[in-house]
Amino acid sequence: MKRMLLIHDLCSVGKAAMMNMIPVLSVMGIEVCPLPTMLLSTHTGGFGKPEILPVPGNYLKESLRHFQRENITFDCVFVGYLGNVPMVETVLELLKTGPAPFVICDPIMGDHGKYYSNFDDSYREALCALLGEADLLLPNLTEAALLSGVPYEEGMTGEGLHAIVSRLCEMGMKKGIITGTNVGEHRIGMAIVEGGFVEQYTETEVLYQSHGTGDLFDAVLAGAILKGATLKEAAFQAHNFVAACLQEKAGQAGNERRRPAVRAAFGKTCDNLKKMSR
After folding, report:
1. Could you tell me which residues come within 8 angstroms of residue 101 by beta carbon, excluding any fewer than 6 positions away?
2. Residues 6+ apart with CB under 8 A from 179
3. What is this structure's pTM?
4. Do residues 237 and 221 make contact, with C-beta atoms less than 8 angstroms apart?
5. Which of 123, 127, 53, 121 is nearest to 91 (CA)?
């Protein structure tokens, strides 16, 4: 069984971060070993201001030393929400020790063209140092623009997107998937970067919003890669799963007559995910 070290935040209530990724990866047959960066009473969206406890960086360092003493190895390290500059520096130090042969990083820090409220340029500068340590980078379009320094424009394609990718590759990005590249009304896109080439794909957008979809995408993508899928195959498996989840939620909230068909499609998608664990 493949084993992943999951470095991310943990919220008690609300489906996001570790709470979304662990069950999906487990269904896919991946052993997930969580190493939290921050503890939250709830997800940050829709529950008021949560209680937050940053995990001391020394805990992560000593945990990794413990793993090494016990010869506990990992096939992959996934780096998600880090929360502050000292934690970024701690994780960068840990990655330099080579805890796994494959490192995935989702540089969570913003959306819709701006930083999340608790981040600024100093956090972006700290995250830039992680680019050279990650084998696969998973930013959304805002995060890709912020990291690269290329001015953000909604729905960037063509020259703008290629400028972002070119700059990120210069900064150390090896492979990447840039999500949220909207390319028109009710169309959602993603750009797959591999071997210095950019391929952009678009799909019909599911008109339903929900927290935690990025974590679902990351989980299926990482699990599929660990199961032997190519980057492109894994990206489409992840996209299809997230789309099926959103369609299921939209069906629950919407047209009763459409619900059986939506649920059947969702069930088929989940069955396909389970088959990957074999």
Report:
1. 75, 76
2. 138, 139, 140, 141, 190, 214, 217
3. 0.90
4. yes
5. 127
Position 166, amino acid = S
d(CA 228, CA 76): 13
- For the stretch 205-224, pLDDT in tens is 666 566 778 999 999 999 99
Whether the per-residue pLDDT at 185 is higher than 80: the answer is: no
Q: In angstroms, how far is CA 204 from the centroid of its own chain?
A: 21
**CA–CA dist 158, 146 (Å, integer):** 18
Is residue 19 within 8 A of residue 11, CB to CB? The reply is yes
Q: What is the mean pLDDT of the chain?
A: 88
CB atoms within 10 A of CB 211: 15
- Residue 206 pLDDT: 64
Which domains, ranges and CATH numbers included, belong to the chain?
A: 3-238 (3.40.1190.20)
> How confident is the model at residue 270, as a pLDDT?
66
Helices (H), the chain: 18-27, 57-69, 85-95, 121-128, 141-148, 158-170, 213-226, 231-253, 259-275
Residue 40 has pLDDT above 80, yes or no: yes
Whether pLDDT at 81 is above 90: yes
Amino acid of residue 254: G
Average pLDDT of the residues in 81-109: 94
Q: Are 34 and 18 in contact (CB under 8 A)?
A: yes
Q: Could you report the per-residue pLDDT of 49-64, keeping only the tens digit for each?
A: 899 999 999 999 999 9
User: What is the rounded CA–CA span in Å between residue 137 and residue 116?
Assistant: 19
Strand partners, 190: 179, 201
Q: 110-111 and 114-115 as β-strands: parallel, antiparallel, unpaired? A: antiparallel
The first and second tokens of residue 276, run together, are: 């990957």
